[in-house]
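anyone seen this seq b4? input:
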Amino acid sequence: MKKIILYISTLIMFLNTGCEKFIDVNQNPNSPTDVQESLILAPLEVAISHKLYSGYAAVLSLHYTQAVALNQTLPNDGTYFLVNSQMNDEWSNLYTTCMNNLKILNDKAEKNGNSNYAAIAKILTAFSLGTGTDLWGDIPYSQALKGVGQLTPVYDKQEDIYKNIQTLLDNGISDIAKNHTRIPGGDDYIYHGDMSKWKRLAYTLKARYYMHLTKAPGYTAGTQADLALAALKNGMSSNDDDFKFGYSGAASNENPWNQTFLPGSTLVLSSYTVETLKQRNDPRLAIMVKPATSPDPVSGQYNGRIIGTNDIGSLESYSIAGDFYAGAGAFNYIFNYSEALFLKAEATLIKSGFSAAQSVYQDAVKSHMQLGVNSGDITAYLLSRGDLTADNALQKIMEEKNTADFLSVENFTDWRRTGFPVLKKVPNALVSEVPRRFLYPEVEMISNPQPQQTSKLIDRVWWDKQ
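predicted toks r here
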């Protein structure tokens, strides 16, 4: 695999040249405006892993769920300091780098009859669209991605965006069912052309987005749970189905979390994250978290930073993410099988109660424990956590899902829609509550003014109702 930065740069260059029109004699043969599907897919997967799933927006969501902390003076991201211009690059990552090129990939694949590439484009578009709408709420889609033909697209209602997500996934599944003989190979870094895994991912994503709407206006938890359980029957079936991106660990090809938590960065794990694992005697602590390395008394101990404090200590005094998640050559777990089981546990709880959800919940925990915990420790941990009851079932399911989705932006969505894990406003916060959405980017507010752009951090998106 070529270097990460080179691939993302190539993708952006392709987009830019593809939008320009030159007379033939002025075309640069070294900057093509038309390439085959395989040359688009590879850098797109890099961008989704490196930029969309692990970029600044993802890190910001970890601040709001209190998973990480900055070792710097206040105010900062952890105390909810945010201005619209900070969202410019993240909006560009979503629309320019990812969704626009996914549209190019889909259009080209459909034109050429390469239905497997079209399927992947639709599935990844659904994932990208879902990521964007859950962070911002209403966003452009029906009039977007049209280039100079429509520079001021209106914002679609989030409910309509969710319907489009399900349609994209259904159409992606239909494309796979065509059984076209041309399948991706080395250009598919995630599933290596295994279309059965792409199909299972699509069904599991359907379940995720169904469950997001359990409290949405006009929707019922029971109906959404039924839809999710039906989709999961065709969804991920083991950890082998994990939607993960591999990195070699070589220079310029490191896992993005490795770069995020570099000793030269001021980002560390929060005391909330570390103390939660310690208090539960969670056997995953030593795998998910690195001990502090400072020569002072905390050396060798697991020590998170308290969010909202002004004191600045040595970076080595705090823990960072462990090598399983943030090693240079670690996989980036974008969507794992454990989440599929937690979705099933939550849906089963809604439909059949806590007793029926118990075994599914335990299977979900066991699935994530396969990151390196022995069977005896798994059994002991589950016993210490106790059984689900009518009073604690949803909380336990979501708390364990939060751990299994370590470093995932999905935890921000889950907290907003369920209230678990329980979070309180941090000390020295700049707003009155824990943020519930992102600000719209300044560049969008200037170039494409829309009424939704007045939204504030503590405003709720459509599905996030009390």
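The CA atoms of residues 345 and 357 lie 5 Å apart. Residues 88-112 form the longest helix (25 residues). kinda curious what u guys think
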